[in-house]
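Margin note from the TA: students keep mixing up input and output lines. Inputs are the sequences; the output is the structure of the whole complex. Example:
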Amino acid sequence: MSKLQQTLEAIKTVDKSLEPEIQAHLDDLTKPKGSLGRLEELAMQYCLATKNVKPELPKKKIFCFAGDHGVADEGVSAFPQEVTPQMVFNMLAGGAAINVLARNAGAELAVVDMGVASELEGEGLISRKVKAGTENMAKGPAMTVEEAIKAVEVGIELAEGAVADGFTLLGTGDMGIANTTPSTALYSVYLGITVKDITGRGTGIDDDQLKVKIDVIERALDVNRHLLTDPINILAAVGGLEIAGICGFILGAAANNIPVMVDGFISTAGAVTAMQMKTEVRDYLFFSHMSQEKGHRVIMEHIEARPVLDLDLRLGEGTGGALAMTIVDASVKIYSEMATFSSAGVSEKDD
Amino acid sequence: MSKLQQTLEAIKTVDKSLEPEIQAHLDDLTKPKGSLGRLEELAMQYCLATKNVKPELPKKKIFCFAGDHGVADEGVSAFPQEVTPQMVFNMLAGGAAINVLARNAGAELAVVDMGVASELEGEGLISRKVKAGTENMAKGPAMTVEEAIKAVEVGIELAEGAVADGFTLLGTGDMGIANTTPSTALYSVYLGITVKDITGRGTGIDDDQLKVKIDVIERALDVNRHLLTDPINILAAVGGLEIAGICGFILGAAANNIPVMVDGFISTAGAVTAMQMKTEVRDYLFFSHMSQEKGHRVIMEHIEARPVLDLDLRLGEGTGGALAMTIVDASVKIYSEMATFSSAGVSEKDD
């Protein structure tokens, strides 16, 4: 059995038998029942995912997966492809938004080259290049199924390593010029949504480029139609290397009962791919924020997810995830540090 | 001229001439322009409010104002009035939700007795009791105009003290059984909204109690009708001591160019009162979260405010504000710590 198959088999729905004990503790904290709303939900989900009714503060690490996209040749992005390696170096140097927000969250950050088109070396870079950028999916499959599986398995291995290092809350991030294009294609196929309803402006394209982008995605789906048969084949045909890495990373974490904070539009495409492979993975996912990228709201509604934050972010990298990790931290502190009604001598509700 | 009048005169709209310099810096950070959405807005507002184009990390302090309400006699709350002092002691002991979330935000916390009905003493308590709880507003004015002014001026003085201590981001909070009742009455009068459209369940009353609550508020507005003439008279007639304190606290901060993070339903009533007294105060206000208390969404839409967070909180104490302070911190770090395009050697957008 392949690593991917083993991992999929290992993913189980969370153990709901712990729920009453966790809920009883939440209800004994000195506040009206349920009055901390989503903080209580987040604490519950974190406890269930990690199978721990007395959790410590999450030990957090964000993995930012980088990859290039052959489809960038079609003029679907506002930025040139050279920005992918430039931003990887910016991350390694500590100057990108994700560096600031990971530090702010007390999370470690790893940057992974899954498939940047140029040769990359740099201190701290995790080199797992499966392929030097995908092929142009408007003309054929972005990658072979073998390459897609390899990229997914890289993600699984990275998650396993992070679990072995003791991290208890993992985060996803992405860097890859043009990567809203394959993400949109994946959503369209997996969820059956019309391309133009979810195609957005990415890093900031104008109306004409938006029309081009929609046309390119439709062509990609057309030319690859015969390959769009199951989750991994679809990922290979119209996905991306960093998206495959994110998908695998999520699967690897869930298989080890470690929850994952999913960043925005690109990371959610990895998450939806993972959910297509194994529905149960959903129990381990926090959806961090509602991206300003046009289709994200449609997709969140489609998968019935309510993100933690809604701050009009559209940067990726893991930035929304890093911010939302701080809210999960707060929820665990509420769970662990508040006084209970009995200990504090506070009267309960009149009945 | 009274302290209140002096403070109102000192509040000026922010200096927009700094905006181009701040915006130019935000646009030079290594990200697509505007892609950090509300983080960029928050950084801009913080810079403008503090008149500082190179801000340091905010030094933060939350003041939780406690007071009791004579109208609790009418059965408008799910909890007995004895909970107000009990929760004050819980806060002084460090066990309440606001203690956890203030620590989490790196914010100091002060608890102020503005008008708890019982005698209170405790280490760390700031005693500024104006009156041992308001009168029952369903039968007459909650307090005299002199008492209301005194409570507002206590808030101003506390803000002035915090400014003198070097705090650069202040937060509001409240504790007071039954205080959604006067808050709702204030909203109704100030904003011209029908009582039943904004009366909610507070800490968790049932349908019958909700009907009672609506009736009590309508009676309070009726019996005090002749007093509802200007902001301070309205505050005296159907407000509360902690709400008056919050109002003054906001005014005192704004008069000193220090922004205030406004917590939920009760704090917003203090903020709306302050805005009724001086529109310009708005420039200094961050609205932290959309409370789950029914009327809050209506009120946010009415005053055209978009809160930072929407986490179904309905606890008060300053909890939503403490959480949202962490997002403002993140925004200031983004502003201060990210690399610029020129320094990082990253290509800008194709034009």
